[in-house]
Structure formats: structure tokens, C-alpha cells
Amino acid sequence: RMRLLGQLFWLLLLAIVPLILAVYEDYRLPSALKPQHYDLRILTHLNELRFEGLVRIHLLARESTRNITLHVKDLKIDEERTMVSSFQEENCVTSIETHDLYEFYTLHLCRQLDKGKVYQLEMHFGASLNSSDSGYYNSSYTDAKTKHVHNLAVTQFSPTFARQAFPCFDEPSWKATFNVTLGYHTNYTGLSNMPIVGCREHETLDHYIWCQHETLLRTSTYLVAYAVHDLPNRTTAADKQTPHNKVTFRNWMQPDLLDKEMQSLEMAPKLIAIFEELFQLNFPLAKIDQFVVPTHRFTAMENWGLVTYNQFNLAINPHDDLQAKKDSNAFTAGHEYAHQWFGNMVTMKWWNDLWLKEGPSTYFSYLAMDALQPKLKKGEAMIAEDLGNFFAKDSFGSMTAISKEVRDPGQILGQFSDYVYQKGSLMIRMLHKVLGEDAFLQGIRSFLKQHALANVVQADLWESMQKAAQQGKVIPADFNLSKAMDTWTLQGGYPLVTLIRDYKTGTVALNQTRFYRGKETEGNSTCWWIPLSFVRQGLPDFEKTIPQASLECPAKTQEVLTLPDPPSAQEWLLVNPQVSSIFRVNYDEHNWCLIKQSLKGDAKFGGIHKLNRAQLIDDMMALASVRMQSYDWAFDVLEYLRKETEDLPWKRALALLNELGALLSGQDKNDFKVYMQHLISPLYKRFSKLEIIAKTRPATEEISFQRFAYTQACHYHVDDCVEQAKALVISRQELPSDFRELVYCSFLREGGEVEFQLVLGLFKNATNDAQQLIWASALGCSRDFNHFKEFLDLTLGSKEKAVKNCFLAAVKTALSGDYLTSQTTNHILSHAKVIGEKFKKKELTSLLLRLVGQVKDSKVLEELNDQLKDIKPFKKPLKEALDLASINQQWQEDCAGDFSRALRKHI
Ligand SMILES: *[C@@H]1O[C@H](CO)[C@@H](O)[C@H](O)[C@H]1NC(C)=O
Ligand SMILES: *[C@@H]1O[C@H](CO)[C@@H](O)[C@H](O)[C@H]1NC(C)=O
Ligand SMILES: *[C@@H]1O[C@H](CO)[C@@H](O)[C@H](O)[C@H]1NC(C)=O
Ligand SMILES: *[C@@H]1O[C@H](CO)[C@@H](O)[C@H](O)[C@H]1NC(C)=O
Ligand SMILES: *[C@@H]1O[C@H](CO)[C@@H](O)[C@H](O)[C@H]1NC(C)=O
Ligand SMILES: *[C@@H]1O[C@H](CO)[C@@H](O)[C@H](O)[C@H]1NC(C)=O
Ligand SMILES: *[C@@H]1O[C@H](CO)[C@@H](O)[C@H](O)[C@H]1NC(C)=O
Ligand SMILES: *[C@@H]1O[C@H](CO)[C@@H](O)[C@H](O)[C@H]1NC(C)=O
Ligand SMILES: [Zn+2]
Fold first, then answer.
1. Quick one: which ligand is closest to 165's CA?
2. Residue 767: CB within 6 Å of ligand 3?
3. Whose Cα sits closest to atom 6 in ligand 8?
4. Which of 82, 212, 444, 667 has the maximal Cβ count within 10 Å?
5. Distance of CA 52 to the CA centre of its chain
6. How far is the CA of 349 from the centre of ligand 1 (A)?
7. For residue 16, is pLDDT > 80?
8. Going by C-beta distance under 8 Å and a sequence separation of 6 or more, which residues neighbour residue 612?
């Protein structure tokens, strides 16, 4: 009977499913109609926080059909006034159907729309302006002088929110031209992607005007933008070196920000000039408005000609903002302007290939930063950081491809992850390094030129690159770049290459396998196309990144290569200079030995590039964690750090060591501290005393490394770091912002109630968000949970975003410290529901990762799971955190012993 019922069930299902499928091809619009042009009029009533609109869409019938389906969400449609016509004759609507899940709105028509003809659909609609930070939404600011609240309205359409502002074909491939006309009270200013053609009085409303904007080039709906507001503006002088174009720049922000120096906004003209030169393609619009929005869903948005920035993320307090925040502002500006080409001009067909705009925008922003601020080397530093994150994260079995199928709005939003941005950027970098500057730029330029104002899939990029590479004779004529690159973008993970040298014949044997930490995903053996570029000790040219050979996919079990310029048996051989491609390498023991000798014995580290030095450390520690090398061996190599002068290897090494250190307890923890002191001491000694740093603020390019070194040194009580810090606090010296947290952290860690109250007083007295955040982070270093708890309650209870953020900052410091970790963990668990409501998924994820990063007891993990598993906002963050936890647990079972023994040997 069971079986019979089962069959019935399936029969029913089979009968129903095709019916549904016949009507909608889930979440994707039918392709019978193609929008060509939108005439959009929006009348904004800011005093009533609502808007009404009229859209006329010109539709080309690609197939004959009797229905029109488009996107609508949360809009009130005036059905009486909906009209369909063919310019010659009227059509009419027989019935209307909505489908909330798919956010579809379907009109059934009296007469068929004929294939090949153009029709006009006219719809009237309206909605309230609420503060959802999506669609056409309301934001506001309080005038510092008058204390009046000023409302404004602005759009955030990416990725799927245009449908909340007007009925539209809200998929990136349906590009159309747009005539935007905005109506508003004359107290306000209206902005859209394009400049204004002209304004006239509203036909009935007093003091209201209609302003028509020039036609916007063929654009996807997610890039259309407008705003109605009363913000003042200031101009940015166009860059004199902008040769091709006379773009006008205006910046809009609330009055009390007008006189603040905002370096990243000032960079805009230079960035446009850099990219015009780099891409050999002019920015096509006449003006760019930079609009600082008090509340914003993201950090910034690249709308064509109307770039919006989240005010909260902007560094506006030059004396109190951290250098890292200023750097990230510069990066953001670079990223949004690179988008004007990658995304705005050339757009992915669908969100599965989001990386096609985010990857290049991220990477080219790094290049632009180094071009504009060469001394800071921030682009390079960010690439190094991305590499570190990538190698750690993409070793989880759960990581999936960056180009993957997404359908519903939730999945689409999920694509906007650090992982997609970082790996996407590393893909573009790989093409750059592997094809070389000339072929790479040639390929990028022809890709942009060929697909300008159109849509692409990743194969289009590969094709442009393949052509350029073949013309430049960088790759063999029969090489299939598309197939090769797909191995990186259509699957998660990355390979470990094992390289065994034959010291008699001079040949090398190589193979590849996916590198996992933790559980492997079962089933398929995976492989990659791996470009191989070799460097030998006698000729350490790390600029030679164009490959001499490659590993293929499907993979041979072993590839044996005869190198054109083989190293002698006394020289090391290194593969992958500058970590151009993203794979790990394990060498045979003798080669490792040779590398180690160079690192330890040579003042210039044998000429090994700093990115490779960082990667050698990373690979060594990773191999030890899967027991392919011993920690004894890894620690032996780490000794070389005592001579290391560059920040990139230091930052990677200490990040990795700190992660493991957090998992130790008892004697092991003490040993670890002693070891870290021994390791860091020479680095610490190289920098000036804190007192001198406090008096003479270090040069901008030195801040990041010095702050890092001092933070680590004081954390591990290296030499007189803590004493120096305490003396500074007692002398009440004003400190540069980047050094305040670490100084006060040391002060608090050694202190009691008096010290806590002093810093709490500073927190309460703080005159801006940046100051507040610094004191909040420092408070996490205190030893006394009773007082700390009060602080946590105070900040978590706040409605102000800046204050809530102080909660996160303080909690994160506490979780990385020695004293309050378990109490803070309990506090988080007991307030989980509130925390889940208050913070974004990204914030929750980083909080939980920090939390599990120091958990030594599996009971805590069980409790974590119990407490959080039913709280919806924690669903994904929890999964990520438990992934990490299981890897850490495995490490504790398999490796902790080896690690501790090695530690003891090296102290
Ligand atoms: C719209 O018309 C097409 C034929 O052109 C048909 O296949 C489809 O099912 C119709 N959609 C709806 C929602 O009725
Ligand atoms: C904004 O309005 C939409 C639709 O009416 C609603 O779903 C959403 O919850 C509102 N958001 C806020 C923050 O009020
Ligand atoms: C426009 O500004 C005037 C003067 O500032 C003010 O009195 C009036 O209420 C404003 N009207 C609207 C609709 O904002
Ligand atoms: C769009 O606006 C331009 C003027 O800016 C006008 O010439 C053009 O006819 C308009 N397009 C449509 C379809 O109304
Ligand atoms: C923008 O700034 C300029 C120069 O300060 C000023 O003349 C102009 O009126 C401002 N525009 C608006 C709409 O505020
Ligand atoms: C790769 O080669 C190494 C050394 O010869 C060997 O130990 C390892 O098993 C090989 N791995 C694979 C996946 O063939
Ligand atoms: C193995 O590969 C096939 C085909 O590429 C795919 O359909 C399947 O889901 C993969 N299995 C696993 C466990 O990844
Ligand atoms: C905070 O400000 C008050 C009043 O200006 C001052 O008396 C107090 O000393 C300040 N507290 C700290 C810790 O600076
Ligand atoms: Zn972006």
C-alpha cells in the first residue's frame, strides 16, 4: 500500500509540475518581449514620503504572444490606467495575474502582439518611500545647526530592487535606453544618471517642477539611479591630465561634511583618467555626481554617472580615522570607477557570472591605487591579503564555484560575497601574470570594445583573451584558454602541486590534487589547468611569470618535464613566481632544504619575491596542518622571519600562528607566548620607541606595518612594549589614531577598575564615531567582565549604528584576548536573538568565526549550535563557523601534539 500511495503521489506531482513550468520558467522572465526604451516619470512627495510614477516601455515582440510579464514588487498599480498600444492601434487588458514569489506581474491582452512589431506599455504606479535602503527609499540627516531633520529620497536598485521602484524587466541582460523625468518641490534638487535637459512647472502642483534628463545609453535596470534631496554640493576640479574627456564632477553631502577633506571623492577624476588610459575607451557620460547617502545598504554603488557612497563608511575625521579606513575608501572609489567599464558598459548576462564585473573591478582598483599612491603599496598589500584569505577559505570542502547557478533574489544577493570578489580578482590577476602585460591589456581592451553596451558570459572574456594571447604568441595556436580557465571558475577549491626533482637527470615530476583541510567532498576527482613558471636560484627572476609549461586537466597521474634551463643540484627550484596562479606547492625534501638555506642564510633571501616568501610560509603551515610536513620543519623555516624586513610575510605568518595559538591552553599556551616573544623581538627592535611615534606621527606608508608590529609585540609582552604603552597613557600624550587602541589595550589588560573607568570615560567623551570605535575596541582588553558586561549592554542596546558597531568591536577584541573569552562567548549566546536582529549577515559571520576560532572545548560548540540553530539570521554564519570549528577540532586531534613538541624545541 505504501508503494501504491507513493506512486499516486508521483503521478500527481508529475501532473502538476509541468503545468507550473509551462507558465513560468522559475524566476526568469519569459523572453518573448524585449524592452527597448523606458520613459520614466517619477513625482516625489518628500513631505509625505511617497512617490507616484508613470512608465512607458517600448517593447519589441521577439515572438508573438498575448501576455506581458514583467517585474513588480511592493508597488501599487493603477490598473485602470494601464494601456498597451502598437502606436497605430489600441490593445486592451483582459486580466491581470501576479506571482509574489517570482515578483512577476502578468497582463493578459485582448489581442496578440505580433512578432517583429514594437508596442508601448504604459503603467501608472505609486508607493511609499520607506527606509529599507532598497528600491527608491528614504534617508535623512539632521542639520547640525538647526537640528531639523531633512528627508531625501535615493535609489539602490542592485541587484533586484528596481522592481520596487517601477515596473520593469529587472534582469541585467534586458538593457534599454532610459528617459528619466523627475518631478519634485522646488526646495529640492533632482539627480539622475544623466544631466538635465530642461525643467518646466508642474501642470497642477504649486512650486513643483518637472525636470527631464538626457537619454541614458543602453543600460541594465540595476544601474538606473535618481535622487531627490536638498544636499549642498561642491565640485571636484577635473583632472588636468584627463586627456580625452571633459567630465564634470560634483559631490553631494550633508552641510556639515562639506568642508571635510574626503580624499577618496577627490580621487574620482584621476581614477577616470587612469581607466580611460588603461582600457583605451572613454568614459561615455558628460558628468559624474558623487552622492553621499546617510544610510546605504552597501558600501557604495557604481550607478552610471551617479555613484552613491555610504556616509557611514567614509573617513571624515582625518585625525581619528584609521589609515586602514582611508585605504579602504580609496579602494572603494577605484572599484566603483572600474565598474563604469566592467559592469556598466559591459554587463554579465546573468548573476551567475557576477564575478565578471566584481573580479576585474577589484583587481583594477588595486592597480589604480598603486598607480595613484605608489608609496603606500596598498594595492599590493590587498592582493597579499586576498591571497591569504583565499588559500584559507577555499580549502574547505564546502566551497563552491564562483560562477554558479543562482535564481531567486536571495541567491543573487548571496553572490555578493568576499569570496566571489577575491577569487574573481585573483582570476583576472592570473590572466595578467600568465599572459603578460601586453597580451593581457590587449585582451581586456578588445573585450570591452567588442562588448560595449552589451552583455557577456565568461566565455566571451576567455575568447578575447585567447585571441590576444595567440596574436602575442604567448600561448600555442591550439591552446584552449576557455577550457583551461573554466577549471578555475566553474569549481571551488584549488590544487596542491607536488614537485619532485630528479637531481641526476635534472627533470622534475609533478602531479596535482585538490587541497583540503577538514572533510573532503567525496566523489569526483578534480583537476585544474595549472600554468607552470619556474625560477632557479642562480637566476632568481621573479618577474618572469609567463608559463613555460602547464599541468593539464584531465590530469595525468604524473607529468615529467625537462626544463629548458635546469637548476644544478645545489640550486633550489621554485614554481609560481609572485604566486601568479592560485595553487600550493610541496617540494621534495632536498629542494625544501635549499630554499630554507636561502631564506635563513642569505641577507636577501636568495632573491625570493616577498609574495613567494609569504606563500612559502603559508604552504608550509598548511602542509603541516594536513601532516604532509612536520611542524618541526615549519618552525625551522619560520626562524628566517627574525631577519625579515617586509610586512607581507610577517603579516601572513603571524596571522597563521595566532590562529593556532588561540587553540592552545595550559603549558602549551605559555610555550607559545615565549616562542612568539622570541620571534617578534627582532622586529619590534627595528622600530622607533612608541614615544617617538607618538610625537612624530610616522610616514603614511609606514603606519600599517608599525601598527601591526606594535600590536603583536604588546599582545605578547615583547620586551618593553607594554611598559612603553603604559608610560604613554600616564603622560597623557595625544597619540596618532592608529596607535591609540594598542596602547590603551595594554593599559587595560594590566589594569583594574580605575583603568576601565578611565577608558570608558574617554569612550563617553568621544566627539566622533572614529574615536568611539577605538576606545570600544580597547575596552575589550579589560580583565574584568562585570564592567565590560555593562559596556556591552549599553552598546548593544543602542539604536545608533555607530554605537552598535562598538559592541562588535569590543566583543571581537575580547574574543581574541586571554581573559574574557568564555564569559564573552556566554554573553553572545545569551543575547543571540537581539544580536541576530541588529547585525548584518557579514557581521554575524565574522563575529562567529572569531568566536569559534578560540573554542577549545567541543561542549561549547554544541551549545553554540543549540542556541543559534533556530535563529534565522544565524543560519548561514553558523554553518560557516561550524565548518571552521570542525577543521580546528581535527587539528587539535591530529596536529596539536606535533605542534607543541615543535614549539618546545624552538624556544
Ligand atoms: C504567455 O504567452 C505564451 C505564448 O506566447 C505562453 O507560452 C505562456 O504560457 C503565456 N504565459 C502566461 C502566464 O499565460
Ligand atoms: C518598506 O516597505 C515594504 C513594502 O511596503 C515592506 O515590505 C518593508 O518591510 C518596508 N521596510 C521598512 C524598513 O519599513
Ligand atoms: C520649502 O522651503 C520653505 C522655506 O525653507 C519652507 O517653508 C517650506 O515648508 C518648504 N516646503 C516643502 C514642501 O518642503
Ligand atoms: C527621450 O528624450 C530625448 C530628449 O532628451 C528625445 O529626443 C527622445 O525623443 C525621447 N525618447 C522618447 C522615446 O521619448
Ligand atoms: C552646487 O554648488 C554650486 C557652487 O557652490 C552652486 O552654485 C549651485 O547652486 C549648487 N547647486 C545646488 C543645486 O545646490
Ligand atoms: C603525487 O606525487 C607524490 C610524490 O611522488 C606522491 O606521494 C603522491 O601520492 C602523488 N599524488 C597523486 C594525487 O598522484
Ligand atoms: C561529479 O561530477 C558530475 C559531473 O560533472 C556532477 O554532476 C556531480 O554532481 C559531481 N559530484 C560531486 C559529488 O561533486
Ligand atoms: C570627559 O569630559 C569631562 C568634561 O569635559 C572631563 O571633566 C573629563 O575629565 C573627561 N573624561 C576623560 C576620561 O577624559
Ligand atoms: Zn562592485
1. 2
2. no
3. 765
4. 444
5. 35
6. 23
7. no
8. 542, 574, 576, 577, 578, 579
Q: How many whole angstroms separate alpha carbon 845 and alpha carbon 693?
A: 35
Tally Cβ neighbours within 10 Å of residue 225.
Answer: 29
Residue with cell 554573553: 827
Give 845-875 pLDDT, tens digit per residue. 999 999 999 999 999 999 999 999 999 999 9
User: Per-residue pLDDT for 397 more than 90?
Assistant: no
Ligand 9 ion: nearby residues, β-carbon < 5 Å: 358, 361
Residue type, 494: Y
Q: Is 524 in the pocket of ligand 7 (CB under 6 A)?
A: yes
Please confirm whether the linkage preceding 360 is cis (ω < 30° from 0): no
Which ligand has the minimum distance to the alpha carbon of residue 96?
A: 1
Q: How far is the CA of 689 from the centre of ligand 7 (A)?
A: 57
- 3 state SS of 135: strand
Q: Residue 523 — pLDDT band, cuts 50, 70, 90?
A: low
DSSP-based three-state secondary structure for 507: strand
Residue 600 CA to ligand 6 centre (angstroms):
28
3-state secondary structure of 125: strand
Plot region of 225 (φ>0 → left; ψ -120 to 50 → alpha; else → beta): beta
21 pLDDT higher than 50? no
Contacts of 735 (CB under 8 A, 6+ apart): 694, 728, 743
Residue 830 has pLDDT above 80, yes or no: yes
- 3-state helix, strand and coil shares in percent for the chain, rounded to the nearest 5: 45, 20, 35
Amino acid, single-letter form, for residue 786:
N
Decide if 391 contacts 584 (C-beta within 8 A): yes
Q: Hey, what's the cell of 819?
A: 581573559
Q: How far apart are the C-alpha atoms of 864 and 882, rounded to whole Å?
A: 9
**Cell for 195?**
544631466
Q: Which residues pair with 260 in a beta bridge?
A: none
Assigned C-alpha cell, 373 = 599612491
Is the pLDDT score of 242 beyond 60? Answer: no
Q: How many residues can be counted in the chain?
A: 907
Could you identify the residue written with the cell 572574456? 461
Q: Which residues contact 624 (CB under 8 A, 6 or more apart)?
A: 630, 631, 633, 634, 895, 898, 899
Nearest 5°: phi and psi at 206? -65, 140
Residue 577 near residue 533, CB atoms below 8 Å: yes
Q: What is the reported pLDDT for 237?
A: 63
Is residue 410 within 8 Å of residue 102, measured between CB atoms? Answer: no
Mind giving me the DSSP string for 215-272? Answer: PEEEE-GGG--EEEE---EEEEPPPTT--S---EEEEE--GGGTTS--HHHHTHHHHH
CA distance 363 to 578: 15
132 lines ligand 2 (CB under 6 A): yes
Ligand 1 mean position, distance from CA 86 (Å) = 19
3-state SS, residue 340: coil
Question: Model pTM greater than 0.90?
Answer: yes
Specify the pLDDT at position 5: 46
Query: What CA–CA distance (Å, rounded) separates 127 from 75?
Result: 5
Whether residue 554 has a cis bond before it, omega within 30° of 0: yes
Cβ proximity of 678 and 907 under 8 Å: yes
Sign of torsion, CA 327 332 335 340? negative
- Name residue 477's beta-bridge partners: none
Ligand with the closest atom to the CA of 416: 9
Give me the long-range contacts of 710-713 (CB less than 8 A, separation at least 24): 710/684, 710/739, 710/742, 711/741, 711/742, 711/745, 712/654, 712/676, 712/680, 713/680, 713/681, 713/683, 713/684
pLDDT at 88: 81
- The number of beta carbons lying within 10 Å of the beta carbon of residue 66 is 14
Element (H, E) at 331: helix 323-339
99 lines ligand 4 (CB under 6 A): no
- pLDDT digit string, tens, across residues 119-129: 999 999 999 99
- C-alpha separations of 886 from 84, 309, 514, 880 in Å: 59, 38, 19, 10
Give CA–CA dist 858/866, Å, rounded: 12
